[in-house]
Amino acid sequence: MKIDFANLQHQYQLYKEEIDANIQAVLNKSNFIMGEEIQVLEKELQAFTGVKHAITCSNGTDALLLAMMAIDIQPGDEVITTPFTFIATGETIALMKARPVFVDIDEVTFNIDPSKIEAAITNKTKAIMPVSLYGQPADMDEINAIAKEYNLKVIIDGAQCFGASYKNTCAANHCDIYTTSFFPAKPLGCYGDGGAVLTNDDEYAKKIKMMRVHGQNKRYYHEYIGIGGRLDTIQAAVLLAKLPHYTKEVEERNRIAQVYNERLRGTVITPQIKADRTSVWAQYAIRVNKRDELKSKLEKKGIPTSIHYPKLLTKQECFGYLGYKNIKFNVADNLVNELLCLPMNAFLNNEQIEKITNEIACAQTF
Ligand SMILES: Cc1ncc(COP(=O)(O)O)c(C=O)c1O
């Protein structure tokens, strides 16, 4: 029995007709840059999320840069975020010549702990950037309340949570600007790099659209220093073919997470989703003591697993200049060594889940 971690090949075979037709249509029209598929996709993303503006872009990293350009992050500003995330979160803050300020995470959601944010605020703080790790939004009400009190902006790095909801609406509605990634292995992925920035604010939207194309307000007239950050039309065509299937896939991911939870209960610590939000299960992560040992045992049995992430941003060499090396983060320092991501995709069947969970039970016993 072969078990795939993400199973993009199977997904392609299922939607092949629509995907191939959409790509062929772009080839026939040769409208490779900003073709009409871009505008159609942006409308679809708006309808899907209920957010007023969706601006597609080159990837989830550039989406973060565009969001920070929109709120006018300046050199020396501070942006509060989590150390337990993909490098892009902190990297883009640093690329803006701002300073990432890391705050410990919550033991349940693995996201930034709002009770620790206030202590990190200084007169240079400009924004809070929570990440929705593994597909579950952070505690947005608490974060937004702090932002309001201190007059800060909130950008959600939603690269892993497109479509997740918070208090019954898409998480993208619970911040000033929301960013996401359509990297192929993300819950909604294209066939290369892709991303989007979403906002309910007209002014931010206007600026992000300009920033995405070198800060131009019309062709060859540049109001701002921006970036070359457009999404390719072919990637929009792929996403347009996949989006109609996305709700069903997320439902399946949730069903699979439930089956994992039931079968693993008592063997390992299983992930929890808070009652007021949903997850799109970008990852299903279990918490175990001898993580690396379990990983290699499962590998030998043909079960692929992955570690997101093996090192906190505070400990990354590139952030040495921030001086976090010897600062302890009680929760994140432990979780970084204990979380292991199991295969997760909408096409895992019960037999495969049974094999995975049986092997985990077996490996944990002996
Ligand atoms: C939390 C987080 N932020 C940002 C990104 C960057 O997205 P991209 O790879 O599309 O640039 C990722 C992608 O892995 C991510 O997981």
Q: Please, could you describe this protein's structure?
A:
This protein starts with 7 loop residues before the first helix and ends with a helix. The protein has ten helices and 13 strands. Strands 1-9-8-5-4-2-3 form a seven-stranded mixed beta sheet, sandwiched between helices. Helix 1 packs antiparallel against helix 7, helix 2 packs parallel to helix 7 and helix 3 (60-70) packs across helix 4 (87-95). The protein is 40% helix and 14% strand. By secondary structure, it is an alpha/beta fold. It has helices spanning 8-29, 36-49, 60-70, 87-95, 140-150, 202-212, 233-264, 291-300, 330-338, 350-365, and strands at 53-57, 78-81, 99-102, 125-129, 153-157, 165-166, 169-170, 177-181, 195-199, 216-218, 221-222, 284-287, 339-342. Bound molecules: pyridoxal-5'-phosphate. Pyridoxal-5'-phosphate is lined by residues 59-61, 85-86, 88-89, 131, 157, 159-160, 181, 183, 193, 195.
Radius of gyration: 20 Å
Instruction: Write down how many β-strands occur, each being a DSSP E stretch of 2 or more residues.
Output: 13
**Compounds present?**
pyridoxal-5'-phosphate
Uncertain runs? none
Strand fraction equals 5-15%
Structural class: alpha/beta
Question: Can you tell me the overall shape?
Answer: globular
Range of helix content: 25-40%
Query: What's the overall average pLDDT, rounded?
Result: 97
